[in-house]
């Protein structure tokens, strides 16, 4: 079973891509799972994240605040501003514009920690950045969305705040409590959680893609191009920020991946919950969920090679 889970985790990009393709080509296959399931499913993923977090990692914020702060600032400046730039550059309609901006305003994705590990980057820094950005997301994400997307649709700050608390903070807190009081249980399931999360994320993507398969025929190529550019801008500008601040190669790797990989599942959840009148709003989040796993796998190979060269320079 552990070997199967390892294979599922290793091929997360392929699994999510296949799931999205099936949902797009045969949307009826997902008729029993509506977008209303997106938030509860994401909560399950966040619960799993809580089970794997080490509370001691939060101490890194106080012992090494500079690097975590850099990652935090890059996360909530580069991606939101890049989203606005792309929305205007491609003259996206309001429904897609809101979805792209929503992705940009979300915290770092949980898979960034796995990709950083595969890239031989600073995993502790990655976990610290993900944890901090996730914990402040209930305030920062609605605030940024209101500021940057308020021209397209009225944004209910407190409603979005409560949604993020319910879907992100409470499940993570529950996971932390379970790990604290039932450590044997958390240790027993630790090896299976990445694979389990992969399956849940795939189901979320399939539900959103199936619900919008008809619209994707019309705007699919544009959304894909925008999402790819958004992700690549995050990866490159995150790397540049680390270099300008004289971080180590491992730290630069962590910041680049953290900035480029968003919690797009949260974007899908918020779009489905708060922008129901905008049918296409969840689509950028779903496409991002597919693409950033592909780009993450490719980035892991490039960064891993770079870190190997840096750690073992040729004589």
* Mass-distribution shape: globular
Q: How can the largest sheet be summarized?
A: none
Radius of gyration from the CA trace?
18 Å
Strand tally is 0
Strand content: under 5%
Structural class comes to mainly alpha
Distance between the termini: 43 Å
Number of helices: 15
Low-confidence sequence ranges: none
Helix content: over 70%
Q: Output mean pLDDT.
A: 83
Q: What is the element string, with H for helices and E for strands?
A: HHHHHHHHHHHHHHH
How would you sum up this structure, described in words?
The protein has helices at 2-10, 12-25, 38-52, 60-63, 65-89, 94-104, 111-118, 123-149, 157-181, 183-189, 193-211, 213-244, 249-260, 264-274, 283-311. It is mainly alpha-helical and 315 residues long. α6 (94-104) packs across α14. The model has no long low-confidence stretch (mean pLDDT 83).
């Amino acid at each position: 079973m552990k070997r199967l889970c390892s294979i599922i985790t290793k091929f997360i990009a392929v699994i999510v891509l296949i799931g999205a393709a099936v949902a797009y080509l045969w949307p009826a296959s997902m008729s029993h799972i509506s977008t209303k399931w997106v938030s509860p499913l994401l909560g399950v993923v966040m619960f799993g994240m809580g089970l794997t977090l080490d509370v001691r990692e939060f101490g890194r914020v106080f012992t090494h605040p500079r690097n975590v702060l850099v990652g935090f600032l890059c996360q909530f400046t580069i991606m939101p501003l890049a989203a606005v730039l792309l929305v205007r550059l491609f003259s996206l309609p309001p429904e897609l514009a809101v979805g792209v901006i929503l992705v940009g305003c979300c915290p770092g994705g949980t898979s960034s920690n796995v990709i950083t590990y595969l890239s031989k980057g600073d995993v502790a820094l990655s976990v610290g950045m993900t944890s901090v950005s996730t914990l402040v997301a209930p305030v920062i994400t609605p605030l940024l969305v209101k500021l940057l997307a308020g021209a397209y649709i009225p944004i209910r700050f407190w409603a979005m705040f409560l949604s993020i608390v319910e879907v992100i903070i409470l499940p993570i807190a529950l996971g932390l409590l379970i790990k604290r009081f039932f450590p044997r249980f958390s240790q027993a399931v630790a090896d299976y959680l990445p694979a389990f999360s992969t399956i849940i994320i795939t189901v979320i993507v399939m539900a959103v893609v199936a619900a919008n398969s008809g619209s994707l025929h019309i705007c699919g190529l544009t959304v894909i191009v925008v999402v790819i550019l958004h992700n690549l801008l995050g990866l490159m500008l995150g790397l540049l920020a680390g270099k300008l601040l004289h971080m180590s190669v491992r730290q630069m790797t962590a910041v680049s991946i953290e900035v480029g990989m968003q919690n797009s599942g949260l974007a899908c959840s918020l779009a489905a919950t708060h922008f129901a009148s905008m049918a296409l709003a969840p689509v950028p989040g779903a496409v991002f969920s597919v693409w950033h796993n592909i780009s993450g796998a490719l980035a892991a190979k490039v960064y891993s090679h770079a870190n190997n060269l840096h750690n073992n320079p040729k004589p």
